[in-house]
User: Fold this.
Amino acid sequence: MEKENIVELKNISVAFDGEQVLDQLNLGIKDKEFITLLGPSGCGKTTTLRLIAGFLEPDCGDVVFEGKKINGVPAYKRQVNTIFQRYALFPHLNVYENVAFGLRVKKLPENEIKQKVTEMLSLVNLSGFEKRNIATLSGGQQQRVAIARAIANHPKVLLLDEPLAALDLKLRKDMQKELKKIQQQLGITFIFVTHDQEEALTMSDRVVVMDKGKIQQVGTPQDIYNEPKNAFVADFIGESNIVDGKMLKDYRVEFSGQEFRCLDRGFSQNEQVDVVVRPEDVDIVEYDKGMLKGKVTSVAFLGVHYEIIVDIGGFKWMIQTTDEHFVNDRVGLYIEPDAIHIMKKSEYSGLYGDYSSYSEEIDHLSDVEEE
Amino acid sequence: MKILSRIYIALIVLFLYAPIAVMVVFSFNSSSSVWVLEGFSTRWYEGLGNDTAMLNALKHTVIVAVLSAIISTVLGTAAAVGINAIRRKFSKKIIMSVTQIPMMNADIVTGISLMLLFIFFGKLIGLNESLGFGTVLIAHITFNLPYVILSVMPRLQQTDSHLAEAALDLGCPPLKAFFKVILPSISTGIITGFIMAFTLSLDDFVISYFTCGHYQTLPIVIFNMTKKSVKPDTYALSTLIFISVFVLMVLYNVLQTKSEKKHAS
Assistant:
């Protein structure tokens, strides 16, 4: 049976200074799920979070919480709590008082507050830190205080605004596991915002991919990865080769001048489509045995596998393989029918999926900049 | 080099404090001569206790300084919070400049224009004597305000803009969130603003001169005395004022280093 939606966004539009930030957004969030809003900066994911928190009112559309419209209900009366990107801990209060803040506002008796704070601090592994000043804590510890402070109030929904962005990689991985554990332990709905696709895939029950103020796709991490709806989603989640194709009939697609078997159907005859093939799903075979034939133009060793760029009729394919190949090798590509995913044409067609200008270095740099 | 720099510092301190030191010494002179030290005496200090005009003026000064400092601190802090919340950068800049111009303005211009306004307004509502306690208080609040805004503003800008949101998020209504979260993080700026306002008001002469009417403050009484002859009792009084300001400053600095240490540790 379908679980009840705890939060619903209906036809939400928001504009700042004439710029459309959210455009007719519709989204239902189920009780107790871990849902991630994923997208590049400026896609509207943080704005969506602030709408639910009550820091922002939509220009039009409804925010619904447990079946009741909560437009106009101020943030301090909503049963949600937020973990801010830079934590926003209160610098003049120590760890104990930070966690106790929401409980004191509720005027709970002192012994109850003490019990609650102790419980929360042990949940985030910060027992013994009660008297510590916030400024003396490391980034990871501050993050934990922020979590404890937010969940001490027993929110029905916890909103997390890129909470791990400021942590280094190792710590981020640990915190991902820990957050997931806390979510399952407490049975709270988590709405998590990030631009890191790997983070989104590993933690979420469902992922909402956003761009330009619109939802591009909603689904489980597997759905999003295996069945991307358009070129934007395919490119944003993982690596993908996206080529122009034509659907000859059900289960038959033509691209790069060849006909392939595939598992997709339901398109009209000869419909123009985008074809996605993930780099890890392509096998490199001998030149003569290949379904597609080309020349290796670059090879990068990444430890687990090689990342090889193969030029096929001017289109550069990325292939991930554990076998070593060399630049200028002539190779054949073999693609299984289940490795081919067909997408309808969209506004993103032709923008992504070609590795002509691909460079490890540039990709790496742009990653750093985003943080 | 080290010796030179020490001598340099010693000279600066000497020039800064020599006049005050001389005044303090002569305030304990038993005669009223300004060049002969005849003997140690506290007679000028004792005399102060009987000088009702002087004591009255002192009372006026303290009342105006305390009230104007409190009121301008409250108004100035509220103004700073408001200005800081303006989203448009351009409007924000203009409003900040407008609030700062009175600081640059010559005191005498401020004084005369305020006097004119008070008298004009007084006539308008049918008063014969419009200048007095009320007008001097308003005048002091007016010139104190920009200093308070200027000392609170930087603290506000350093405060994480998400702090107030975090408080709201945890169930705190906006006003309570301001007092529980924003106020503590800008408190040093508020205290600095208050002390600045208090000392500015304490020693203001020009603006008070034009706006006080019969409610004469200490600087004005002292000035009137110097028209006849300067007596050592003014030294004694000035010494007392200097000491109180000095103590205030030391106290303030001690408090500040303490709070900084607390933040750093």
Observations:
- Chain A touches chain B at residues 53-55, 74-77, 80-82, 84-86, 88-92, 101-102, 105-106, 133, 135-136, 149-150, 153 (CB under 8 Å).
